[in-house]
């Protein structure tokens, strides 16, 4: 029986799963992200119980996805202690010697949503997570999109809301998208977590404005046919229609986009977009 | 002998050329863009003198580049009288019955620069023209990039310069990139053409700021390894180093980019990027 291994490697926890070839999950664990020696040992212990045929990894970044690079398969310049320049793919290859599909967490989620979620059968689609940070991945022509490296689209510049004079929270760029609209930006800028802010708080108008501009920019550059918005901040259900309305207004009919309720959606796979994407990528690398 | 046909279809003029398979140009003409009946008749007259084997077309847009679409090969929603929903590819197919590579003017220029210009052998690169309008095209993994449609990246939103309180000139979006940094925006906003503004005019600082933000956003979304800046506005040679310096500052070391003098360049093919790209695309569709 074919067994697929999936690792959704986040900055807080690693979610590992083993499934059969029909993607039925046999076992799934969550491992805290501490230092590589500890976390990776637990990962190897988990998968060591099975004869897994291939792995799909969706990792926090930045990572090296260029197969021609000497550091392909590494987590590169992360500030996370111990993980900087960690050879993730090399470690797993050494432990199991199996084929590995290696990409970012958001690219894996984008692939999951394209194959089995809210972008099913939409070969040009975009997945954005708005959580602690903001990150995005795209599927173009049915395959994960990378340029010279993988996108880092959470850090684009957007125009400031005229009434928003607060500082941005990104340590690199100040008021880039992540510095204005991520969960941690909302908490830092307004003194409360998003979940504790009333629906009519100005934070939501600002956040919707920034995210709508970001979707406008991504639409103009990548030309997706659907955009999926995931992550903790999107659990505030009133935010999606605000973003859709603002995007429609900002775009001003310039592109022939699908109706907003189709064009911008929440994940069809819920919080399982990443893990499902990783399993599908494990399957892809095997075939 | 193989003959290649090239049409760089702009809003003001069509540049048509015939070359041999080594891209030596045999004849080249410029035809004013009036209405399709007139312009296209002159195009057919020109190519009718040769037994052209294939065509590469780089057209003003928006155009339909989706081969599965019923209006593939059309110029779509242009306000230009007569050209709205014009079946460009169909017209040429009917006249000559030869293979046609159909893409945007900026995509063709991006391809030309990748094959023979300043992005030679750089398989992930971006070409931006800053002229009457602002438009961009990308080569990803050695091929022209399209999503569901072609990019329209000239209209992205960027943050306003704190000292720039002037209005933007884009009829759709006001102060999008094209509305702030195109040649026509500069003329409208500062009362003079860029060529007539002194080098220390604040217009250049604003323009460099907006273009640098745009390059930052494109870099984060598309991850090119090189960016080529063409078009009339870039003929002001003092602008390039201003953009490079501002981009470096804004990016704040977040991405591992090549040195700015390598990363951001002017076209290696000068004003011939488009026509060269079209000839190369004619060759590509033939092979």
TrEMBL record, chains A, B:
<dbReference type="InterPro" id="IPR049874">
    <property type="entry name" value="ROK_cs"/>
</dbReference>
<dbReference type="Pfam" id="PF00480">
    <property type="entry name" value="ROK"/>
</dbReference>
<comment type="similarity">
    <text>Belongs to the ROK (NagC/XylR) family.</text>
</comment>
<keyword id="KW-0862">Zinc</keyword>
<dbReference type="InterPro" id="IPR043129">
    <property type="entry name" value="ATPase_NBD"/>
</dbReference>
<keyword id="KW-0479">Metal-binding</keyword>
<dbReference type="InterPro" id="IPR000600">
    <property type="entry name" value="ROK"/>
</dbReference>
<keyword id="KW-0460">Magnesium</keyword>
<dbReference type="InterPro" id="IPR051804">
    <property type="entry name" value="Carb_Metab_Reg_Kinase/Isom"/>
</dbReference>
<protein>
    <recommendedName>
        <fullName>fructokinase</fullName>
        <ecNumber>2.7.1.4</ecNumber>
    </recommendedName>
</protein>
């Amino acid at each position: 029986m074919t067994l697929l291994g999936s690792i959704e490697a986040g900055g807080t926890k690693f979610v590992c799963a083993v499934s059969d070839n029909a993607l039925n999950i046999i076992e799934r664990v969550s491992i805290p992200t501490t230092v590589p020696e500890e976390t990776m040992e637990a990962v190897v212990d988990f998968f060591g119980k099975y004869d897994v045929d291939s792995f799909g990894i969706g990792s926090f970044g930045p990572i090296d996805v260029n197969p021609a690079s000497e550091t392909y398969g590494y987590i590169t310049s992360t500030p996370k202690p111990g993980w900087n320049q960690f050879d993730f793919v090399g470690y797993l290859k050494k432990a199991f010697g199996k084929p590995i599909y290696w990409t970012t967490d958001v690219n894996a989620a984008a692939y999951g949503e394209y194959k089995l979620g809210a972008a099913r059968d939409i070969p040009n689609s975009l997945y954005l997570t708005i959580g602690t940070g903001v990150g995005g991945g795209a599927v173009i022509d049915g395959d994960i999109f990378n340029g010279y490296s993988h996108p880092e689209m959470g850090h684009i510049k957007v125009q400031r809301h005229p009434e928003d004079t607060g500082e941005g929270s990104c340590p690199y760029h100040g008021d880039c998208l992540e510095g204005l609209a991520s969960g941690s930006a909302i908490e830092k800028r307004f003194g409360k977590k998003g979940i504790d802010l009333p629906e009519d708080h100005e934070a939501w108008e600002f956040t919707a404005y920034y995210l709508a501009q970001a979707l406008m920019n991504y639409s103009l550059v990548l030309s997706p046919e659907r955009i999926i918005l995931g992550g903790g901040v999107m659990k505030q259900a009133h935010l999606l229609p605000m973003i859709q309305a603002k995007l429609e207004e900002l775009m001003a009919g310039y592109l022939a986009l699908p109706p907003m309720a189709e064009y911008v959606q929440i994940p069809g796979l819920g919080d399982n977009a990443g893990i499902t994407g990783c399993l599908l990528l494990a399957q892809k690398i095997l075939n």
